[in-house]
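can u do me a favor
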């Protein structure tokens, strides 16, 4: 701040000095009065700016008693030898204002005006035409509106006209075609309507014509073919219709032609083949029909060709092989038929070739199978045939390949393992046979592997565990067999897993419970047996689970109710027995359930989804739902889950808790997803202790804190103090101890219960992990993971620490917190509002990953109630909406 001020002062002095030197020593002094009136006029304009102090024009000033000369002293102003202003370059100067007071009449010698990248608004005044010497006019990247004044056509020396990226509307004045020396015309990204004036054909010197991203209509005037100098023609993203004029074939200097996303129809004129300079031709997303003219093979400089999303038909001409520089060829979503060109990769530059969703037949040409330059290849949705067992794969640069939904046969080549960059491999819906080659696991960057709907046999190779980047894995609809290999457990990034309709057998491995990011799991139509692993309860992001048509037995594990994201659950056609866990009551997201054809008994859970569930084929179910017999009360559930205990807890409150009661919540053991194994190990080990022996845990915490000795205290708040406790296992936890015990003051008791209730609902990498709680006659406390770096508030208030927080880290913190809030507001049911997001409630890991903490004032938003009006939180941080309520 201080430094900046001194700097400005220094600059001011410097400016004064130069000014005086100019005024008293330079010969310009003779013309000072003319210059002075120009300066005055400019100052008058400056005075109309809305942000007089915030722009970069502090050097524009008037000095009484001396003739003010702006030449080379004022920012952005230059003069001719006669000391009259001829250039005004104020690009990116923070100007907020209009052009209404711009001294058009007072600056007769102006040749160059650049006011781009400011916040100019209002219309362009027609007086602009008085700048009769103007050569260069750039008003781009402002907020100018209104029509382009036709008087601009009177600026007959103009060579460059940039009005792009404003909010100009109306049609393009045809008077622009009088600017016979015009070289660059940029009107893109406005709101211009109407046609392209045919008279533009007169602009013989034009090299650049950018009209894209407007709402221009009508057809492309054939007169454009007269613009012999044209190099770049950009007219994409308009509403242009009609056909492409054949005269465009005369634009022999054209290197770039972008006409995509219009409504052009008719055929591609064969004359386009005359554009020998063309490097980049993009005609996609129109209504073009007919076939590709073979003359396109003459475009020997062409590197990029986009024809996708039209109605083109016929074969892809063999002449395309002559395009030796071609790097990108996009033909997808047309009606092409016939064979792929045999030597399409002949030039050795082809990187991106997409021809999916056409009617192509024949086999994949050898040149494509061995095309080392390929990065992306999409041929899905054609009728390609042939054996792809051999010489396919081994692409050093390939990232994405999709050959799905063709009629390809043969085995999966082991060469796919030689694609070090490969991220997506899809060969679904073909006639592949044989087994999955173990070599595929050498392509360790694979994120998505889709081999579904083929006739593959054999087991999943053990070294599949090396594919640790896998996010989507689809092997469904084959004849794979055997147990799931335990090595599968290392695929912890997986989000979508479909192994349905195969012959997999033995138990569903408990390691599936470690796939914490999973949102889709389908194991249906296999031969899985034994019990459903209770570990699946850890899959808190899972939204669809299908285990139907297997031979699963035993009870439905009550841990499954922890899958709070679950929406669809299909357990039909198994041999499941026993009662449906009552804690299914709390699975608020569930809306489709199928438990038909099992041997389940007892009452159905009190959950809306069960009202419409498919439950036929179970003899012992009862409840108030059509088709079921009413329940006989002696069959009521006996077991009370931990979760239920928590819910009735507030009601029984003080009575129940007179004695030592150490209740721990088993569901809290969510491992931080992308974090070091070390932290997660510690977390898990701590957890297993607390999960099974609360009394021991209590003892350990009392011992570790020396009975809550102040030396272990790391923070104090209104309701309680926070201590660190190093447990015998070596893990460190944070313990928030309330000042009052539960049977004490009502407010803190409420807060305690509130916090527990909120915390049991949520798991997120940016929300502090809750490990357990204790309520005894002496103490009430909550146990959390300990975040070594402390709170954001503490860091920001320490100058040295704050310096370590660079901007990208700060952005990351903001992002993390917003992820946490988004999760609480949108992914939790009912939504949770924290109501006290302050920097002191944002804790940081050592890598500055943020965690939202302190849920003492959080509220569950019951959608049926409107009782959330009470103000809570830290003054100054409360959401504004709440104050209004
Ligand atoms: C652009 O013009 C159209 C009609 O001419 C109008 O509906 C639309 O609101 C305008 N958009 C902007 C951003 O001015
Ligand atoms: C192309 O230019 C030639 C003259 O250079 C002219 O005769 C011909 O008509 C033009 N072609 C089209 C299609 O306009
Ligand atoms: C696409 O081509 C097939 C023949 O290959 C033809 O029957 C069909 O009508 C064409 N569809 C369109 C939209 O042109
Ligand atoms: C559950 O799976 C069975 C067999 O896989 C299927 O027939 C049924 O339609 C599925 N139920 C629902 C509700 O999708």
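np, heres the sequence
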């Amino acid at each position: 701040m201080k430094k900046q001020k001194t700097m400005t002062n220094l600059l001011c002095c410097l400016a004064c000095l130069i000014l005086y030197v100019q005024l008293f020593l330079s010969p310009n002094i003779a013309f000072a009065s003319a210059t002075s009136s120009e300066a005055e006029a400019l100052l008058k304009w400056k005075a109309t700016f809305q942000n007089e102090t915030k722009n970069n024009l502090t050097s524009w000033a008037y000095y009484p008693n001396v003739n003010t000369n702006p030449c080379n002293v004022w920012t952005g102003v230059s003069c001719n030898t006669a000391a009259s202003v001829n250039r005004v370059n104020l690009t990116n100067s923070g100007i907020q204002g209009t052009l209404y007071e711009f001294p058009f009449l007072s600056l007769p010698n102006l040749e160059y005006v650049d006011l781009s990248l400011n916040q100019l608004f209002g219309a362009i005044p027609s007086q602009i035409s008085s700048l009769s010497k103007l050569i260069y006019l750039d008003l781009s990247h402002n907020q100018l509106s209104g029509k382009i004044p036709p008087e601009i056509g009177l600026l007959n020396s103009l060579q460059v006209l940039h009005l792009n990226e404003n909010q100009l509307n109306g049609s393009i004045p045809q008077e622009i075609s009088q600017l016979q020396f015009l070289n660059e015309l940029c009107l893109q990204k406005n709101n211009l309507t109407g046609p392209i004036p045919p008279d533009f054909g007169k602009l013989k010197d034009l090299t650049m014509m950018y009209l894209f991203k407007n709402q221009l209509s009508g057809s492309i005037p054939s007169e454009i073919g007269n613009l012999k100098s044209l190099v770049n023609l950009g007219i994409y993203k308009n509403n242009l219709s009609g056909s492409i004029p054949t005269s465009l074939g005369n634009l022999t200097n054209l290197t770039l032609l972008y006409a995509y996303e219009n409504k052009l129809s008719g055929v591609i004129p064969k004359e386009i083949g005359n554009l020998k300079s063309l490097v980049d031709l993009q005609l996609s997303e129109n209504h073009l029909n007919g076939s590709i003219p073979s003359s396109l093979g003459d475009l020997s400089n062409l590197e990029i060709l986009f024809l996708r999303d039209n109605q083109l038909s016929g074969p892809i001409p063999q002449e395309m092989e002559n395009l030796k520089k071609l790097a990108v060829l996009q033909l997808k979503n047309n009606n092409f038929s016939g064979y792929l060109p045999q030597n399409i990769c002949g030039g050795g530059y082809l990187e991106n070739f997409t021809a999916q969703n056409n009617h192509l037949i024949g086999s994949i040409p050898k040149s494509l199978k061995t095309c080392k330059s390929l990065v992306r290849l999409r041929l899905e949705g054609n009728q390609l045939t042939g054996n792809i067992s051999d010489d396919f794969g081994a692409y050093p640069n390939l990232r994405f390949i999709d050959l799905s939904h063709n009629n390809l046969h043969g085995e999966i080549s082991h060469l796919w393992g030689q694609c070090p960059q490969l991220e997506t491999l899809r060969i679904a819906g073909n006639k592949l046979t044989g087994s999955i080659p173990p070599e595929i696991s050498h392509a360790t960057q694979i994120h998505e592997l889709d081999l579904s709907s083929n006739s593959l046999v054999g087991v999943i190779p053990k070294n599949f565990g090396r594919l640790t980047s896998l996010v989507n894995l689809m092997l469904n609809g084959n004849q794979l067999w055997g147990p799931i290999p335990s090595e599968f457990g290392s695929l912890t990034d997986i989000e979508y897993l479909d192994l349905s309709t195969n012959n997999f057998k033995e138990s569903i491995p408990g390691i599936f419970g470690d796939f914490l990011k999973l949102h889709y799991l389908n194991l249906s139509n296999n031969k899985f047996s034994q019990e459903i692993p209770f570990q699946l309860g850890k899959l808190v992001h899972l939204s669809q689970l299908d285990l139907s048509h297997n031979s699963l037995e035993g009870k439905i594990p009550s841990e499954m109710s922890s899958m709070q994201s679950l929406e669809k659950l299909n357990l039909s056609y198994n041999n499941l027995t026993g009662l449906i866990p009552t804690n299914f009551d709390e699975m608020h997201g569930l809306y489709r359930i199928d438990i038909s054809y099992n041997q389940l008994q007892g009452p159905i859970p009190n959950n809306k989804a069960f009202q419409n569930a498919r439950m036929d084929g179970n003899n012992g179910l009862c409840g108030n739902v059509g088709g079921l017999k009413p329940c006989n009360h002696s069959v009521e559930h006996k077991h009370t889950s931990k979760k239920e205990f928590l819910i009735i807890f507030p009601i029984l409150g003080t009575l129940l808790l007179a004695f030592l009661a150490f209740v721990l919540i088993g569901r809290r053991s969510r491992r931080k997803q992308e974090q070091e194994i070390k932290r997660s190990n510690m977390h898990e080990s701590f957890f297993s202790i607390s999960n099974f022996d609360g009394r021991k845990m209590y003892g350990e915490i009392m011992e570790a804190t020396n009975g809550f000795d102040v030396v272990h205290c790391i923070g104090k708040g209104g309701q309680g103090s926070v201590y660190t406790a190093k447990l015998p296992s070596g893990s460190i936890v944070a313990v928030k101890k309330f000042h009052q015990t539960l049977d004490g003051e009502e407010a803190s008791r409420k807060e305690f219960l509130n916090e527990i209730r909120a915390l049991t609902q949520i798991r997120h990498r940016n929300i502090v992990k809750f490990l357990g709680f204790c309520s005894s006659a002496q103490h009430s406390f909550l146990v959390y993971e300990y975040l070594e770096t402390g709170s954001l508030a503490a860091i920001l208030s320490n100058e040295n620490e704050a310096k370590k927080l660079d901007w990208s880290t700060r952005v990351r913190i903001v992002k993390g917190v917003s992820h946490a809030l988004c999760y609480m507001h949108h992914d939790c049911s009912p939504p949770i509002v924290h109501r006290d997001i302050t920097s002191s409630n944002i804790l940081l890991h050592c890598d500055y990953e943020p965690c939202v903490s302190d849920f003492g004032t959080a509220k569950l938003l019951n959608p049926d109630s409107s009782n959330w009006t009470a103000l809570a939180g830290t003054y100054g941080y409360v959401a504004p909406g709440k104050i209004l309520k």
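Residues 167, 169, 191, 193 surround 2-acetamido-2-deoxy-beta-D-glucopyranose (ligand 1) (CB under 6 Å). hope that helps!!
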